[in-house]
Amino acid sequence: xxxxxxIIFSALTVLSAAYSAFSGNLVRSAFVLxxxxxxxxxxxxxxxxxxxxxxxLLIYVGGILVLILFAIMLTSEISQKNETTNPSRKDFMAxxxxxxxxxxxxxxxxxxxxxxxxxDQRPVTESIGELLLTDHILSFELxxxxxxxxxxxxxxxxxxxxxxxxxxxxxxE
Amino acid sequence: xxxxxxxxxxxxIFLLGIYTTLTRKNLISILMGMELILNGAAVQFAGFALFNxxxxxxxxxxxxxxxxxxxxxxxxALIYSLYRKTGNLSSDSMSDLKK
Lengths: 173, 99
Description:
A: 173 residues, mainly alpha, Four Helix Bundle (Hemerythrin (Met), subunit A), 2 domains, 78% helix, B: 99 residues, 3 helices
């Protein structure tokens, strides 16, 4: 049962990610990304990581994707086409990089060791919390500091550009 | 369900994200591609955590999700200031932010 569910979930995730990658419409691409991220939460559940599934839904679907949609609405890019880079120059470069990498990755995956038996699935929140505060305490502190720097930095970027725009307008007048 | 299926799913999401990031001109599309890249990596970490019966992979996935949220906040600040300055979101006009 888990096998069939996992195959359905992963196929749908990859298909929706592909639609989001190749779609020409920005809004449609963003809404399909919502589907991709929600289905990834399903994959986490099947992989026995209940905590990851919950924070995937809370942070990705509830936070990041709403921010992306908000940015699309705010910048009124809806009517514009989802432009790709200059076709004459770079259009063949991305497949040239992707296809050999894909072949290499598939080769590496299927020649590597395979694990089919996995232990019974238990709630993992406790073990994640314990590992965060014992083995990974330095990374935990560094990430929280990075989060602080990121928040201050993004506020600074926005306020700085706003102040500069005001200055330019004053200069023009 | 075995490790190969999980790794294949993760790598396909990852490569589709790289394709989006490389081919798009719009900054919001590039941000969506980066989210796909981080998601693919986190799926692989969770898969290894399950099949090796080792919680460290899940901790790494938590870190990845934190950094994805941070990255989205910073890129949206850049999008906002770029849009105020130039009125479009093309990655070609990113160098205008220096002026």
